[in-house]
Structures are given as C-alpha cells and as structure tokens.
C-alpha cells in the first residue's frame, strides 16, 4: 500500500515540475513570438513530460 502512495506522490510532483517548465518556456518565448496557440502547442510538444 505504501508503494501505491509513493507512486501517486511521485507522479504528482513530476507532473507539477513538467507543467512549471512548460509555463516558464511559454513566458520566455512570449516576447519574441507572442502568445499564439501555435507557440503553446510547440512548447507542450517539445518539452518531455
């Protein structure tokens, strides 16, 4: 049972870190390319999660 909760916690933490990287990358690219849907799609597609 502890392995289950450890796995769930690990998935939640790593997902949060991945989302943080995606948001940060979008904010870095925004001054150069704007905040188009295409840019967000590119960021989500290229950052491995």
Automatic annotation (TrEMBL):
Keywords: Membrane, Transmembrane, Transmembrane helix. The chain crosses the membrane at residues 28-47. This is Uncharacterized protein. It comes from Paracoccus rhizosphaerae.
């Amino acid at each position: 049972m502890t392995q289950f909760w450890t796995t769930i916690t690990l998935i939640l933490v790593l997902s949060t870190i991945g989302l943080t990287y995606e948001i940060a990358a979008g904010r870095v690219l925004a001054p150069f390319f704007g905040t188009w849907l295409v840019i967000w799609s590119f960021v989500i597609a290229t950052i491995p999660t």
